[in-house]
Amino acid sequence: MLARPMLQRLASPRTGGLLALAAVIALLPLALRNSYFYDVAILVGLNAIVCIGLNLLIGYAGQISLGHAGFFGLGAYGSAILASRYGWPPTAALLATTLAVAVLAFIVGRPILRLRGHYLAMATLGLGIIIFMIITTEDKFTGGPDGISVVPFRIGGFVLQGEHIWYWVVGALLLVAVWLALNLIESPAGRALRALHSSEVGAEVVGINAAEHKLMVFVISAVYASVAGSLAAHYSGFVTPGKVAFLHSIELVTMVVFGGLASTFGAVVGAAVLTTLPQLLATFEDYEMMVFGAVMIGTMIFLPRGVVPSLARLFKSRRSAAADGNAEKT
Amino acid sequence: MSLLRVEGLGKKFGGVNAVEDLSFAIAPGAVYSIIGPNGAGKTTLLNLLTGVYRPSAGQILFQEQDLTGRAPYEYARQGIARTFQNLQIFFNMSALENVMVGRYMQERCGLASALLHSPRLARAERACREEAAELMRYVGLQDYLSSVSDAMPYGALKRLEIARALATAPKLMLLDEPAAGLNPTEALELDDLIGRLSDRGVTVVLVEHNMRLVMGVSDQILVLDYGRKLAEGPALTVRNDPKVIEAYLGSAITPETPYGGDVARAVAVAVEMQR
């Protein structure tokens, strides 16, 4: 009697997907042979956190952003400057930076999100470039193109240092990030986002304030990026403008699209594949970027909805075909 | 007291008056139909009455409250719901979720509660699911409870929009050509559904070309032509009004014209020919 609802819950993304992700994070260290592997895994986790937020904006609400590296950069530099230059406790620096980024996203999001499609892309692109310019030119605070070093993260007397500790911290935060995103999507606000993605007027006439919801998800996605940026700065102990640049924004969007729009686990898979692939392809040396491009093109041709949604659909139709076959036999 | 009152309403697109100097009032509980030849401004009027378009002139008062110039979601929050002639289904969601979106106003909660999936929200979600399923059964979609919306036939999608609009618990419901594209059986079922909406206490505004449906269910009919009011009144008065007949057929009909004096039938046939 109890078994069926239990099984159904386990098959749902919120319970089942989270458990699966937790299992992967818990078991992965068995395959991580040295600290370099850990380093890549941590990068995957941090990118995944940004992508989960970005996917809420792009995949669910249908609003593009080509400036999210800017928010990532603001998080990184905010933490770096407050904690290293001004000696703030890293936790306080992280919270203050996150709050500041949220406020900034709220203020700039209001006019920007009135735009649609290409125009929104242009505006967010511009925002990212402005942030990049400010960071590279205000060298008194940011160290300019040379970057600045960042003190390790500590909570009270406990110092977070070394790949092993960071792996578990980022892993835990990734789970929290996924859990929050899944909760949001399954809430009335999440349905409102998906609704306005499909038909803005359809959403408005049932009482949804579309502008307010777009702004909300824009702020949430900026906060995800900022927190990941802060953590990345403390983890690597150094920030440079490279991670704030336009190219990084594009990489983030690519991860989201590659993994699958409107799929939270897709965002994680996209981040994982596109972060590790360049490392694996290092053996191709000069041809690395060509192979990378070929993999991207191939994936988008054969899995056009992105890796996770396409495979899920394939699996579903196989299973229902098998079920139909069984039904015919009996 | 009227539920909805419109005074001197106008909408210009460039130099064209899509709706011009229009005034009328809708009594609570009525089925109020808006008819007129293609291009008469019916859908424009519906868009004005739901805030999708901003009027260039005039006022819209709902329960004596001025809603002129407000956003569509504010109209919805006052209790005005609608369906669309060209469907606005959320195709990225299941049929049931489409109706659940309609429960947004009753269900919406704080961001923290949504992010943390509070127990209160979990209970509300279960209740919302039940209510949405109930509404789908109410409009006759019991076979589509677990369907993906993009796999549903046209007639079912039309009902899905009605269920979604009903989910907002409206006082006034605007149906934009609900019978268009339906087969005769489905159109008959729609008759019955509109009757039931009215019994539920929902005031219905019906924009429709299907004259059998309009003449059968309407308490009051407004005839538009070139964005202006041509006639208004009960079905019987309107269908015998020479101005109305002329607007539809181009010239007055006398008992000598085909179909005898049965003007209503002539009007219906003319409308069929137009399509």
Report on the architecture of this protein.
Chain A has 330 residues and is mostly helical. Chain A has one domain (36-321): ABC transporter involved in vitamin B12 uptake, BtuC. Chain A has helices spanning 3-11, 13-27, 35-60, 68-85, 90-112, 117-137, 139-142, 163-185, 188-198, 200-204, 210-236, 246-259, 264-280, 288-302, 307-329, and strands at 148-149, 153-155, 158-160, 238-239. A two-stranded antiparallel ribbon of chain A has the order 1-4. A two-stranded antiparallel ribbon of chain A has the order 2-3. The model of chain A has no long low-confidence stretch (mean pLDDT 91). Chain B has 275 residues and is α/β, with parallel strands linked by helices. The chains are: A mainly alpha (330), B alpha/beta (275). At the A-B interface, helix 8, helix 9 and helix 10 of A face helix 2, helix 3, helix 4, helix 5 and helix 6 of B.
The CATH architecture of chain A would be Orthogonal Bundle
CATH class of the largest domain in chain B: Alpha Beta
How many domain modules of chain A? Answer: 1
Question: Helix- and strand-based class of chain A?
Answer: mainly alpha
- The percentage of residues in β strands of chain B lies in 15-25%
- Oligomeric composition of the shown chains: heterodimer
* Helix and strand pattern of chain B: EEEHEEHEHHHHHEHEHEEHHH
**CATH topology tier name of chain A:** ABC transporter involved in vitamin B12 uptake, BtuC
The radius of gyration of chain A is 21 Å
Taken from the alpha-carbon principal axes, the silhouette of chain B is globular
Query: How far is the N terminus from the C terminus of chain B?
Result: 38 Å
- How many beta-strand segments of chain A? 4
How does the major sheet of chain A shape up?
2 strands, antiparallel
Count of alpha and pi helical runs of chain B:
12
Largest interface by residue count? A-B, 28 and 41 residues
What is the correct CATH architecture of the largest domain in chain B?
3-Layer(aba) Sandwich
Radius of gyration of chain B (CA) equals 20 Å
Largest sheet of chain B: 6 strands, mixed
Instruction: Give the strand content of chain A.
Output: under 5%
